[in-house]
Q: What sequence folds into this?
């Protein structure tokens, strides 16, 4: 799509790149490895001096979260996105950390992450002064389930997450 657009001599803007990232995100949901394609699009944006914004980074995190479910993305990839955000003068948002938690959940389902990884993301979120939400804890519970599937989580881990939810004022019934 992007090549067809540029072959006409037009210069893609942020919306065109975001549309392309949305297409890549949908491909990632099917299990296709899309991580490098997403980072290539981000590099092209930089080359074209097109400024990425929060929606661009949400697409990237979505691609990584879906890719992690198929063993094709890691927390290091999320760190790479974070560095790109900082380079674009963007602050990480709660949705960024929710995306990181979704990556942990995907990795845990592949036996590549633990509940400790989820706790580390939660702690980073708090250090940034952000309040975890139902979305955060839903992904954390998915990480717990993935880890438990591989005998890497216990009832105590689940109880600790529920206690943390209470401390954060998040209603457990929502999960």
A:
């Amino acid at each position: 799509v992007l090549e067809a657009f540029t072959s006409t001599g037009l210069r893609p803007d942020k919306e065109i790149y975001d549309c392309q990232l949305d297409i890549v995100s949908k491909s990632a949901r099917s299990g296709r490895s899309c991580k490098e394609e997403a980072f290539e699009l981000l590099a092209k944006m930089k080359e074209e001096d097109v400024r990425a914004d929060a929606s661009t980074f949400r697409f990237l995190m979505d691609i990584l979260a879906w890719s992690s479910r198929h063993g094709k993305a890691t927390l290091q990839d999320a760190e790479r996105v974070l560095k790109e955000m900082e380079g674009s003068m963007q602050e990480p948002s709660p949705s960024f950390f929710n995306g990181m938690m979704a990556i942990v959940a995907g990795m845990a389902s592949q036996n590549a992450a633990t509940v400790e990884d989820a706790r580390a993301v939660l702690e980073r979120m708090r250090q940034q002064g952000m309040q975890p939400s139902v979305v955060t804890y839903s992904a954390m519970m998915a990480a717990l389930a993935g880890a438990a599937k591989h005998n890497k989580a216990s009832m105590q881990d689940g109880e600790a997450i529920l206690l943390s939810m209470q401390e954060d004022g998040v209603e457990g019934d929502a999960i």
Remarks:
- The chain is about 70% helix and 0% strand.
- The chain has two domains: 1-91, 94-175.
- The chain has a mean pLDDT of 91.
- The radius of gyration is 17 Å.
